What does this fold into?
Amino acid sequence: MLGGEEHAELERRVACYTLPFKVVQRAKMVLYAADGLGNAGTPPVLGLRCGG
It folds into this structure.
C-alpha cells in the first residue's frame, strides 16, 4: 500500500518527460500493482511481453 507522498511522487515520475524511460516504466508498474492489477496484468498494459 502506498502512502500519499509515495503515490504523488510516482505520479510525478510518470508525467515527467525528461526522466529515463525505465524510471517512468517502473513508476507505472508500482502504481498498477498498488491498484491491484498484479504481475500478470501489468506487462500487457505497459506494452511489454512476458517470457522469451
